[in-house]
Predict the structure.
Amino acid sequence: MNGPTAEGRKRGAAKRAGNGPAAEGRKLSRSFGWLAFLGTLLVIAGVVGLIYTGVATLTSMLLFGWLLLIGGLVALAHAIESRGTNYFWLGVVVAALNLAAGVVVIRHPEGTAEALTMFAALLFLTGGVFRLVGSVVVRGPQMGWTLLQGAFGLLLGLLVLFDWPHSSLYVLGVFFSLALLFDGLGLIAIGIGGRRIVSMVSDRLDDRLDDRGGDQGGDRLGGRESGRGARRGAERLDAPGPATDSPPKAPGDGRK
């Protein structure tokens, strides 16, 4: 009884100290929980952006401008660190272009949205035309899907182009909100699935540790019992036989 109890005390102390698999599982579950929480925030932001597409468009333009500014500052810092090399002036030019583009985007978000919407419409048109022509010329096994993608891209490009510049108020906001929505759903799925997997693995590790501790305690108890049985058998063999008062009779004493 002392073996399993001691092992149980050791496992309990390890769990309380935070060194067991259950503690590590709790840490991982907490991390996956934060990941799911971040995904929930992104989903909420995506839904709000789909409702208020104009605000989402302006927000995406401002974020884009600030990213250009930050990237220009980082590129300028790298260029200053690499002065004296052949890439110094190239780094300075790239940093200056990023800084100038960031300032223009932040000061004129509506005009930037119109220009980017026109660029997106032209991309949809050219991509749709190339897919349609390529699927007809090649005639591969995925011809139907390629035709469908080309027709969809061509139609989307025409719709955006015909409604330009009014389409610039909602096209970029819709794309930005959809990206947030799908990224948030992916993070939620990863967080929930990770928590389930971690809980399953932690439970199995705890069960294996409990079974191992019970087996070790049983082996110790069995070894003690076998040792006691061996000692008892040796004592029985070493014990003297029963004593008698009458001496042993000699052969032939009972004949007449």
